[in-house]
Every structure is written in structure tokens, then in C-alpha cells.
TrEMBL record:
Gene Ontology molecular-function annotations: geranylgeranyl diphosphate synthase activity; metal ion binding
Family: Belongs to the FPP/GGPP synthase family.
Protein name per its UniProtKB record: Geranylgeranyl pyrophosphate synthase, chloroplastic-like
BP terms from Gene Ontology: isoprenoid biosynthetic process
Length: 225
């Protein structure tokens, strides 16, 4: 996907090393593959979607760097390697994530070919919304503030999953397909349930529902998807 060439090693070296460390650390590349597949599915050229695919992958990566920071989940490992802040320090990791976020939008704006400026502006606007206080950031802040609370329900857990995970996946597809297909069902409508449950610290579906019910829910959501 040529992410290697998207962020080159240049001055200031430390920040670009840190950006590249996480960007090129592997990962399943689900977001970018979805983006390209969606484009091809509706008859578009792969090359049209490539900058958007790199951008969503870059945003996904920067969100993981933030998520791993000591002030968030304080994780030592990501993608089988030491987390960005473990290697480069917290200050560099924070700035590398910020720079990756900025790069994602710059890259869409400068590298996308064959889109009208109207669609380009709409694409960038949609993506920005998915990242901000109604998107990834919303999911993370709710996750943080519900942590440790008892009496947290499935609806709140779904809110976190939708905002932390589904929203960027949805954006990866909708950024490309939105104009072409009449997609009316929002991810919020998918698998809406109202159960309640208890959690100790981090919420998960198995903690709320038990393994068996979680499996059933996963199968239901999968077939709806
Ligand atoms: C976006 C400004 C801004 C800040 C970030 C920390 C945060 C706010 C949001 C949390 C986002 C987060 C960590 C969501 C989890 C997403 C997720 C499903 C991670 C695991 O994805 P995989 O397994 O990862 O596809 P790989 O490594 O394969 O890419």
C-alpha cells in the first residue's frame, strides 16, 4: 500500500522515525483494505481510493499510539512490539500521533486524483467528524469515564464499540461508496440491544453477557452486517 513511501525519513529525524515505527509495524490493514474494496466494488479505480486508504490506516495507527499512552491504557506492547512511547518516550509518541493525524488529511487533500473538489471537501469533512468529539474521541472519553463504574450497560458498551471501532471502518467504506449507493442503515441501528450488566473495570461483551451470549451477539451482528 506504499505507506513506506508516504512518510519518509526526514528532518526532524526523531519524529519521522517515531511516525514510521508505528505506521510500518504491521497490523491487519483492515481499514485500508475495506476502503479499496469498497471503491472497486462500485466500479471505481483502486488508485482513486489509495490516498483515502492510507489516510484511514494512518488515523487508525495514530489512535493506537494515543490509546497506548500512560495517560490512557498504558500499554507496553502493540502489534507484538514495544509501544511507541516505550521506544521514543511519551512526548515524542504524542507528537508523532498528532503529526500522523495531520498527515492523513494532508495526504488525502494532496494525493487524491480524479475527485471533484466538492467531493474532496465532503470526504475530508466526514473523516474529520469520525475522528473528533463525535467519533473516536467520543468513544475513548466514554470508555475512560465508565472505567471502574459498576452498573454499566450493554448500550454504553455498544456506544464505545461503535465510536472506537465501527466509525472508522464505516468511514473507510462510506467515504468511497456514499455517493454511489443509497446506504440508509447506520451502524447505530445495527444490533441495537438494551440489556444491562455489571463491570468491574474495563468493559467487554463477555463480562457483560458471558461468553455464550457474546458469541450469539457476534453471530447476529455478523449476519446483519
Ligand atoms: C483520534 C485524535 C484522536 C485520538 C485518539 C485513543 C483514542 C483517541 C481512541 C481510541 C481508538 C482505539 C484504540 C480504538 C480501538 C480500535 C481497534 C479495533 C483496534 C484494534 O484494531 P486491529 O486489531 O489493529 O485491526 P491492527 O494492529 O491489526 O491494525
Amino acid at each position: 500500500m506504499a505507506l513506506e513511501n508516504a512518510v519518509l525519513l526526514k528532518e526532524p529525524l526523531i519524529i519521522h522515525e517515531s511516525m514510521r515505527y508505528s505506521l510500518l509495524a504491521g497490523g491487519k490493514r483492515v481499514q485500508s483494505m475495506l476502503c479499496i474494496a469498497a471503491c472497486v466494488l462500485v466500479g471505481g479505480d483502486e488508485s482513486t481510493a489509495m490516498p483515502a486508504a492510507r489516510a484511514v490506516e494512518t488515523i487508525h495507527t495514530m489512535s493506537l499510539i494515543h490509546d497506548d499512552l500512560p495517560c490512557m491504557d498504558n500499554d507496553d506492547l502493540r502489534r507484538g512490539k514495544p509501544t511507541n512511547h516505550k521506544v521514543f518516550g511519551e512526548n515524542v509518541a504524542l507528537l508523532a500521533a498528532d503529526a500522523l493525524l495531520s498527515f492523513a488529511f494532508e495526504h488525502i487533500a494532496t494525493a487524491t486524483k480524479g475527485l471533484s473538489s466538492d467531493r474532496m471537501v465532503r470526504t475530508i469533512g466526514e473523516l474529520a467528524k469520525c475522528v473528533g468529539s463525535e467519533g473516536l474521541v467520543a468513544g475513548q472519553i466514554v470508555d475512560i469515564f465508565l472505567e471502574g463504574l459498576s452498573d454499566v450497560g450493554l448500550e454504553q458498551l455498544e456506544y464505545i464499540h461503535i465510536h472506537k471501532t465501527a466509525i472508522l471502518l464505516e468511514a473507510s467504506v462510506f467515504l468511497v461508496v456514499d455517493d454511489i449507493l443509497d446506504v440508509t442503515k447506520s451502524s447505530q441501528e445495527l444490533g441495537k440491544t438494551t440489556g444491562k450488566g455489571l463491570v468491574a473495570d474495563k468493559m467487554t461483551n463477555p463480562k457483560l453477557l458471558g461468553i455464550e451470549k457474546s458469541r450469539e451477539l457476534a453471530e447476529k451482528l455478523n449476519s446483519e452486517a
